[in-house]
Write a structure and sequence with these properties.
Elements (H helix, E strand, L loop, with lengths): L5 E4 L4 E4 L8 E5 L2 H5 L1 H19 L1
Antiparallel strand pairs: 1-2, 1-3
């Protein structure tokens, strides 16, 4: 496995190494390529949990 930081590019919908699109178009950094690949799912899971917590507060 390659060392360094990994990013998920929102423009191209793919994992990129440190050198890639501008950070404004990416999520990260992540420690591994695998972590970066799961960025969108992790964000969706967190958003769902936050939405459910907000509903519980009402």
């Amino acid at each position: 496995m390659s060392e360094g930081q990994w990013w998920f590019c929102l423009k191209h919908m793919r994992v990129e190494p440190d050198k890639g699109c501008p950070n404004k178009d990416r999520m990260g950094p992540y420690a591994s390529e695998e972590e970066a690949a799961g960025a969108l799912q992790r964000a969706a899971d967190r958003n769902k949990a936050w939405d459910e917590a907000d509903q519980d507060d009402d």
